[in-house]
């Protein structure tokens, strides 16, 4: 029944790919099949994290059904991206599906970009490490990220900035905090035997993100935090002081726990658990809060779907044994839904008659 539903839904989504380039629209009307992009996205562009975060699901659906159409759609996206020039080796967040050209050169490992990089690594892992093209794209991307976006603050905190209008903005988003876990997950198999380096980088990002929590009144992290002058790991603007039950920091704690078993990650996870329970629990569930620096916070009255899918799941896994969903057998998509590693010979999906 679930396979049938998945195929029905995928069929409704496929018209989104009917663009001159094959880069899909951000939205598609499920009745008419007409696609469009967000009005605010640079010059009618599609968004890197959106069209780059289909790979795992579509490849798995082709595996389940034997129908290569889904696999071909996402592989076409990858081939197109490989051919394009990348400023500083980085992928801008906006790409126009009509012209095939980048929109404004804004690059981020946080919102608008984040899960594209995550899926390059996870495509390789999901293929039982046979999809070497995905691994190469990942390695190239994180080398460019480390060179151009990762900096150390005056206070010694490692952070990932955003490239905007030709300069580096010394600001990190809560969403970017997932990257600590990504670096740890990708350490094994990294280029030039740099596994130790990437595990250390993951630990440094985890530490910085923990500081963003620890420096608030509620011990919950803000949406974005700056590294300017004397201000470090603290939100400056009022509209960045909210916490909406986001999982990324806890996700990184969990990966760091799995790879190091350093008890501090469970300690940090427990701090966050207590803060969420104390400040976000309401009669009907859990709510985001509008200001993590206020001792009497107001609720936003929304329980986001990722709170159940990710935040609570990663906390549960953080305090569970490693044999619950072992990383050798399972890869988590960007909403923490586990997909199995497909132990197939040679190339992606070669065990499937559709690809012989």
TrEMBL record:
The gene is Man1a2. Pfam families: Glyco_hydro_47. Pathway: Protein modification; protein glycosylation. It is an enzyme of class 3 (hydrolase). This is alpha-1,2-Mannosidase. Transmembrane segments: none annotated. GO terms for biological process: carbohydrate metabolic process; N-glycan processing. Its cofactor is Ca(2+). One of its GO terms (cellular component) is Golgi membrane. Ca(2+) binds at residue 334. One of its GO terms (molecular function) is calcium ion binding. It comes from the Eukaryota.
């Amino acid at each position: 029944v679930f396979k049938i539903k998945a195929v029905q839904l995928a069929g409704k989504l496929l018209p989104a790919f009917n663009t001159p380039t094959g880069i899909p629209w951000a939205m598609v009307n499920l009745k008419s099949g007409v696609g469009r992009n967000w009005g605010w996205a640079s010059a009618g562009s599609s968004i890197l994290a959106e069209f780059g975060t289909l790979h795992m699901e579509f490849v798995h659906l082709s595996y389940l059904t034997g129908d290569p159409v889904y696999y071909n759609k996402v592989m076409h996206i990858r081939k197109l991206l490989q051919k394009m020039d990348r400023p500083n080796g980085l992928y801008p967040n906006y790409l126009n599906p009509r012209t095939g050209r980048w929109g404004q050169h804004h690059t981020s490992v946080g919102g608008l970009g984040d899960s594209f990089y995550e899926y390059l690594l996870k495509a390789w892992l999901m293929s039982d490490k046979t999809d070497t093209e995905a691994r190469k794209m990942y390695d190239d991307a994180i080398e460019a990220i480390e060179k151009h976006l990762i900096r150390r603050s005056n206070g010694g905190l490692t952070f990932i900035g955003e490239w905007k209008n030709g300069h580096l903005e010394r600001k990190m988003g809560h969403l970017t905090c997932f990257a600590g876990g990504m670096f740890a997950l990708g350490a094994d198999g990294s280029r030039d035997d740099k596994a130790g380096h990437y595990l250390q980088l993951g630990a440094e990002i985890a530490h910085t993100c923990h500081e963003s929590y620890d420096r608030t009144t509620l011990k919950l992290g803000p949406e974005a935090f700056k590294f300017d002058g004397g201000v470090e790991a603290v939100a400056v603007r009022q509209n960045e002081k909210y916490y909406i039950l986001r999982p990324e920091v806890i996700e990184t704690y969990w990966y760091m726990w799995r790879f190091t078993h350093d008890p501090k990650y469970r300690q940090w996870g427990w701090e966050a658990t207590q803060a969420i329970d104390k400040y976000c629990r309401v009669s009907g569930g859990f709510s985001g809060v509008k200001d993590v620096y206020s001792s009497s916070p107001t609720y936003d009255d929304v329980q986001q779907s990722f709170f159940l899918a990710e935040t609570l799941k990663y906390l549960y896994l953080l305090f569970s044994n490693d044999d619950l969903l072992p990383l050798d057998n399972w890869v988590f998509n960007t909403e923490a839904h586990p997909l199995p590693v497909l132990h197939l010979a040679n190339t992606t999906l070669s065990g499937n008659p559709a690809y012989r």
